[in-house]
């Protein structure tokens, strides 16, 4: 039976500043590097051997993937970067809003922001990404991605609608490991 695990990237400069990064590139902090290494050690100790690592192509996720791979003894050149796993864009608001904004507003409020990906489009992308993962022959797959995308793919796996309450209740901390299936 296929197992699917998800890890959000390690802490970044924009996380520390409390800013929405979305599709803006931002580097891992020293703490983020240590978080990724610790996640790799935890995966090695607690999970079955990982057959495949798939990640968003952004620097923060690829760097997190490489650090995890090093801890696992997984070949870095076998990490698959895939555009389906990129973060939701928050359009013109990226880098301008504090993350505390998300505590007071629903994610669907970003739907009308110039350049923002709607929650419906994000959900469709997460559905396609999940279908893709199910077609892979590897049994134990680790996806390294982002927070909003993690919430979307968790909704797909659990067959839940994209409601505000579900999104808030399912946030994933930096370098946190989640078993999806």
Describe the structure.
- This protein has one domain (3-179): Rossmann fold (3-Layer(aba) Sandwich), CATH 3.40.50.1240.
- Helices cover 42% and strands 12% of the residues.
- The protein has helices at residues 13-17, 30-46, 59-72, 100-104, 119-135, 147-158, 164-169, and strands at residues 3-8, 52-55, 80-81, 140-145, 177-179.
- It has a 5-stranded mixed beta sheet.
- Helix 3 links the parallel strand 2 and strand 3 (80-81).
- The longest helix is centred in the N-terminal third of the chain and has 17 residues, at 30-46.
- The radius of gyration is 15 Å and the shape is globular.
- The mean pLDDT is 88.
The CATH level-2 architecture is identified as: 3-Layer(aba) Sandwich
Overall average residue pLDDT: 88
Shape estimate:
globular
| Ends apart, CA distance between termini | 9 Å
Order of helices and strands: EHHEHEHHEHHE
Question: Spans of 5+ residues with little confidence (pLDDT < 50)?
Answer: none
Tell me the CATH superfamily.
Phosphoglycerate mutase-like
Radius of gyration using CA atoms only: 15 Å
Sheet-strand content, in percent, reads 5-15%
Main structural class: alpha/beta
- Strand neighbour order, sheet with most strands: 3-2-4-1-5
- Could you say what the CATH topology is called? Rossmann fold
Question: Can you identify the CATH class?
Answer: Alpha Beta
Q: Helix coverage percent of residues?
A: 40-55%
Please report the number of helical segments: 7
> Total domains, how many?
1
Largest sheet: 5 strands, mixed
Number of strands: 5
């Amino acid at each position: 039976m296929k197992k699917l695990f998800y890890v959000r990237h390690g802490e970044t400069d924009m996380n520390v500043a409390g800013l929405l990064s979305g599709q803006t590139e931002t580097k891992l902090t020293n703490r983020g590097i240590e978080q990724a290494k610790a996640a790799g050690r935890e995966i090695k100790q607690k999970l079955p051997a990982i057959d495949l690592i798939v990640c968003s192509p952004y620097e923060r996720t690829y760097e997190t993937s490489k650090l995890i791979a090093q801890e696992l003894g997984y070949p870095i050149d076998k990490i698959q970067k895939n555009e389906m796993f990129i973060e939701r864009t928050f359009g013109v608001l990226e880098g301008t809003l504090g993350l505390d904004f998300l505590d007071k507003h629903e994610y669907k409020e970003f739907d009308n922001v110039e350049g923002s990906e709607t929650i419906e489009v994000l959900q469709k992308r997460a559905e396609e990404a999940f279908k893709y993962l199910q077609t892979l022959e590897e049994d134990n797959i680790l996806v390294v991605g982002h927070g909003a995308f993690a919430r979307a793919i968790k909704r797909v796996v659990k067959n839940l609608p994209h409601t505000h309450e579900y999104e808030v209740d399912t946030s994933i901390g930096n370098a946190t490991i989640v078993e999806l299936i």
